[in-house]
């Protein structure tokens, strides 16, 4: 398992001061409003506010209640600026890797090391952007939200299955309790998770059985952060996730009178074709787990972040250089 403690994640931080910037925004309809992490009075509210802050930064793309993409403005690897007018979209994905403390864990992936010192004004290194394109970042986004929110006991990981497994195997140490999403009320700060791709794990029962039999096995998953669970009594849950259709995107799901997910779509888009649009929905997934944030957890202080990226070590240069890597060529040795 590649689970890192909160303190370990903070120790490895090296990113711009904007990572804890409470980006102001006007109130928006449904779900997020103008939630501000610095004004949060409890841990669930802070988690929700951090996820919502990032969603606003990406111009609030969302999937409607039928699971159709209703709005999108900028994609993950573009150089176009996000809502703060300063951060390129691709650079914000780097911030999620660095702000969660996870960039070092994936340093062996091609191009990852070239992301270490980039800034908003950096040349858009093809090697760094290649790493970002080739490496799923939804778990890095969730980890970023939890680390930036100061969730005690959360183990940041580049794989969702690690903190799902942590909640199942160590309910006393994890900040979450694992539950059946079809039988449990969601609340702000929870994580709703599904299994990606073809898998025998298709519901909560088969997930629990798989977790009991696999102490460290991999399972492709995706988790969204619940930012508003029927808070306005509108019968809807609003969730925010990273790497959804190339951005930080909101998902809207129906809630019934009991406060539970109502007719939560299960399965894949079988029969989805241009002439059968009713069969198409990005909400059709194998939803297998609701990670319930434990009530009453204390909020750790937000991380202390340096004013800018740490300076690269001396002699960081290349002799046999790759064009576009962003690493400068070493000067020629002095003549004898």
UniProtKB/TrEMBL annotation:
Task: Show where the DUF2272 domain sits.
Answer: 88-293
InterPro entries associated with the record = DUF2272, UCP028415
Report the leader peptide range. 1-29
Q: Which UniProt keywords apply?
A: Signal
Which residue windows are transmembrane per the record? none
**Top-level lineage group:** Bacteria
Q: Name one Pfam family in it.
A: DUF2272
- Please give the name of this protein: DUF2272 domain-containing protein
* Organism (species): Marilutibacter chinensis
Q: What is the lineage of its organism?
A: Bacteria, Pseudomonadati, Pseudomonadota, Gammaproteobacteria, Lysobacterales
């Amino acid at each position: 398992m590649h689970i890192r403690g909160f303190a370990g994640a903070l120790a490895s931080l090296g990113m711009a001061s904007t990572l804890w910037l409470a980006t102001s925004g006007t109130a928006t309809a449904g779900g997020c409003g103008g939630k501000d992490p610095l004004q949060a009075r409890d841990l669930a509210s802070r988690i929700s506010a951090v996820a919502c802050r990032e969603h606003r930064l990406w111009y609030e793309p969302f999937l409607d209640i039928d699971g159709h993409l209703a709005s999108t403005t900028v994609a993950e690897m573009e150089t176009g600026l996000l809502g703060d007018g300063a951060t390129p979209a691709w650079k914000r994905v780097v911030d999620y890797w660095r702000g969660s403390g996870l960039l070092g864990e994936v340093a062996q992936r091609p191009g990852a090391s070239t992301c270490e010192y980039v800034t908003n004004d950096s040349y858009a290194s093809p090697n760094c952007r290649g790493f970002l394109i080739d490496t799923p970042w939804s778990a890095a986004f969730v980890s970023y939200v939890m680390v930036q929110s100061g969730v005690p006991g959360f183990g940041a990981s580049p794989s969702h299955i690690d903190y799902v497994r942590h909640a199942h195997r160590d309910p006393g140490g994890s900040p979450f309790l694992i539950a059946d999403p079809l039988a449990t009320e969601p609340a702000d700060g929870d994580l709703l998770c599904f299994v990606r791709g073809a898998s025998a794990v298709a519901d909560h029962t088969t997930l629990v059985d798989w977790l009991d039999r696999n102490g460290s096995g991999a399972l492709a998953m995706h988790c969204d952060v619940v930012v508003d669970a029927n808070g306005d009594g509108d019968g809807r849950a609003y969730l925010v996730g990273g790497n959804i259709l190339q951005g930080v995107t909101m998902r809207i799901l129906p809630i019934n009178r009991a406060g539970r997910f109502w007719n939560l779509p299960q399965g894949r888009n079988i029969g989805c074709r241009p002439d059968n649009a009713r069969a198409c929905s990005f909400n059709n997934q194998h939803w297998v787990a609701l990670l319930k944030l434990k009530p009453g957890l204390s909020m750790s202080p937000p991380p202390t972040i340096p004013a800018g990226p740490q300076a690269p070590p001396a002699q960081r240069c290349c002799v046999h250089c790759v064009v576009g890597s962003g690493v400068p060529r070493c000067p020629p040795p002095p003549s004898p």
